[in-house]
Amino acid sequence: MSTAHAKRSDVSAVTPIDQSELEFDHGSFDSAAFTQNALSSWQALAAIVDAALLSPEVTREKVEKLCDEAVRYHFASALVQPVWASTAVSVLAGTGIPVGVVVGFPFGASLTSTLRQEAAALLRLGARELDMVIPIGQLKSGNHDAVQRTIHAVAHVAHHHGAAIKVILETSLLTVQEKLRAAEIAIQAGADLIKTSTGFAMGGTTIADVALMRGVAGGRCGVCGSGGVRTLAEVKSLLEAGANRICTSAAVTILRELGAD
């Protein structure tokens, strides 16, 4: 477990978030330089793309194909449903491509105890990244402590196993103030990366949401544009807005726009 993980997630007490923390300067992220590097070749872009396959009708054959593509293009990860975690881990064994698995997906309405158990089970199967959805209803009810405790519980399990935790805010369902609050809560609860969307709500990622989240995150954690990302032009806009990871089910199509075969 890294020192950064230990500092963030091995704290049992939950500290309330106040407005001053949302306005504090948390460092910077050079979006222009990052974008230039990421788009310098299809290989560079692939290294920051999570190739996702999360539809409910996904079959084993499709998961195996996703994993084969992840190896061929060397994506940042192959992101799958929990039921396919062991399959993906088996196919990708020895390749260096991490398996990401969604937790509490797509509604963010699971019990914290359920999330902890699910996270631990997936990590034992070999998952190296967990993508969890915040308890959206709790956030909108103003129960920020419950949101932070839930994220922290999963982050603690992930970091204990040396895995990363990505926290999905589902921005299309939130007000601007809720987005700001959710981003700060997630970061303080131990998020290694904050994501915009599941792709299953009324809307996906937007440039404005990525920019807002990067504004909160500064240099403290990653920001992922996720949900409805289908073209290279969209990827470029999201990177310029502050994303340093892209999650998409159109990963291969996007790489081919940049010259991959």
Topology of this protein?
Elements lengths: L2 H7 L9 H5 L7 H8 L3 H5 L2 E5 L6 H14 L3 E4 L4 H8 L6 E5 L8 H14 L3 E5 L2 H5 L3 H17 L3 E5 L7 H13 L4 E3 L11 H11 L4 E5 L5 H10 L3 E4 L2 H7 L4
Parallel strand pairs: 1-2, 1-8, 2-3, 3-4, 4-5, 5-6, 6-7, 7-8
Notes on the structure:
- By secondary structure, this protein is an alpha/beta fold.
- The protein has one domain (25-257): TIM Barrel (Alpha-Beta Barrel).
- 48% of the residues lie in helices and 14% in strands.
- The protein is built from 13 helices and 8 strands.
- Strands 1-2-3-4-5-6-7-8 form an 8-stranded parallel barrel, surrounded by 7 helices.
- Strand 7 (222-226), helix 12 and strand 8 form a beta-alpha-beta unit.
- Helix 5 runs parallel beside helix 6 (85-92), helix 7 (112-125) packs parallel to helix 9 and helix 9 packs parallel to helix 10 (176-188).
Question: How would you sum up this structure in a few lines?
Answer:
The protein is an alpha/beta fold and 261 residues long. It contains 13 helices and eight strands.
Structure keywords:
261 residues; TIM Barrel; eight-stranded parallel β-barrel
* Number of helical elements: 13
Using DSSP, what is the number of strands? 8
CATH superfamily: Aldolase class I
| Sheet having the most strands | 8 strands, parallel, barrel
The proportion of strand residues reads 5-15%
Output the radius of gyration. 17 Å
Helix proportion: 40-55%
Alpha-beta classification: alpha/beta
* Spatial strand order of the main sheet: 1-2-3-4-5-6-7-8
List the secondary-structure elements in sequence, H or E.
Answer: HHHHEHEHEHEHHEHEHEHEH
From the spread of the alpha carbons, the general shape counts as: globular
Unreliable stretches covering 5 or more consecutive residues: 1-15
Ends apart, CA distance between termini: 37 Å
- What is the count of distinct domains? 1
- Mean pLDDT, to the nearest integer, reads 92
Based on the coordinates given, report the CATH architecture. Alpha-Beta Barrel
CATH class: Alpha Beta
The CATH topology name reads TIM Barrel
